[in-house]
Structure formats: structure tokens, C-alpha cells
Sequence to fold (275 residues):
Amino acid sequence: MKPTDSPLDALAEALRAARHELVLVTTGAGISLASGIPTFRGTDPDAVWKRDLMELATARFFYEDPVASWRWYLQRFGALGEKRPNPAHLALVALEKWHVARGGELLVVSQNVDTLHEQAGSRNLVKVHGSADRVRCSRHGCRHGAPRGSLPRAEFDVGPFLRDPGTATLPRCPECGSVLRQHVLLFDECYDEHEDYQWDRVIAGATRAAVHLFVGTSFSVGVTDLVLNAALVQRRPTFLIDPGLEAPAPEVTVIRQPSEEALPALCAALGCPAA
Fold:
């Protein structure tokens, strides 16, 4: 970065130089905060883990008490369908179109289970932690379960369970009758447990990317470790957009702005303003 460059200018210059190459954007809960979705480990007052124990989001807890697990997740996911993309999501779509038009590729690897990237129009997307709008059979090997099956959540009426939570009203697999579970990566599970997590694609992207951009992530999970280490080993330009986080390594350039401000500003600097 030139002494006269701002961090945002440096990111714009790195992207211009990455013509015909892969740009990898890894997003975390911070990108959805402006859409009204609390973060997990952030400083906002509604951060999820300020209220709930991490043990609730485990397979062990689900199999021990599927009723309590379903109640917790329905409370957590209940309002997600009402949320809409914010300017950060829309800016990433504009950035993807701009880079693809130059012969490059932009891949978004999202840790978020909301559907805001899809709603905004991101086309090249990996949801490495699963998706809140889908469920799957809890029996491994069922065609609606791991390692490759899942079902739209909207196909299941959870009204009976909400009115009378219990074993008898738990949503069940239409194929084998086993209890359904959330189609998300739980804390005691591995990234390769389901094909939808596209872990091989994440590994390939991390090693091939010419520029790495992290947005709103606290670097607290395995995917960020993998991607960051790949960026540092290969000495790729690496940036973090977040108003409050410190750089996870000296080589990472931090843009200390909310993503809903920084990403539209980046698009404006590149001549691809977001809608």
C-alpha cells in the first residue's frame, strides 16, 4: 500500500490488478447486522452468544433433546424470512458483475445461514455453514439427509409443534419418519459432513485467489482459519472490512467502516455503483 493510499484505495487498486483472476470474499455475521440480524460474537447488544450457550447449537444437544433444539432454532430463525439485503449485500453483487465483465471470478464464501446474499443476487456463492431456509433428515444416509439431501423448510407446517411442542409434533422426514433437523453446520460437526457446505470448493478457492477480502467476521471458526492461512502463506493482498475488529495478522489491511458503507464506497471508486 502506498503511503498516500487509504485502506479503501489500496483494496480498489488490488482488485483492479486482479483482472482475469479469482477474488475471494469471506463474509460473516457483521455484513447482515444492518439488515437487523444480530451477530454471534460481536459487540452489538443482541449478539447471539451474549444470551445463548454455544452448546445449544450442537448435534449432541439435538439428539439429547430434539424438542428443545427445535424450539431454540425456531426462535432464532423465526424472523429471518422478513429480513432484506442491505447496501453491503447489493454492493457485492455489483462487484461480482464488474469483475466477471473483466474476465475474472468473484466467489463469496458466507458463514451466514440467512438468505440475504441470494436475495441480493449473488451468483457465485458458497454457504459453508448451511442455510436456515432448509431442513434435513437426522438419519445419515436417508435421501433427505446427509451427505447430500435436504428439503425446503417452507414445505413443513411447524404450527402443530409451536402450539404443542413435544415429541409427537416434531417435524419428521417424509421418507423415513425420522425427526428433521436444521440444515446447518453444528459446532460439533465437520465441514465435510454435507455436500451443500462445498468444503472442497472453499479449499480450492482459498489456494487460488489473487485477492482476499473478509467482511464482518471475527475469525473464530475453521473456515476463516483456512482462508486466512492460505492468503498469508501465498502472500496475497488481504483486507478486512469491519468497524471494530483488529487485524488478525500484520499483513491484513483493515478498513474500519461498517460494510454497508465501505462496500458501496468501494464500488463507487471502481465505477460499478450498486443499485
Q: What stands out?
A: The radius of gyration is 19 Å. The chain has two domains: 1-37+84-129+191-275, 46-82+132-184. Confidence is low (pLDDT under 50) at residues 46-51. Residues 87-101 form the longest helix (15 residues).
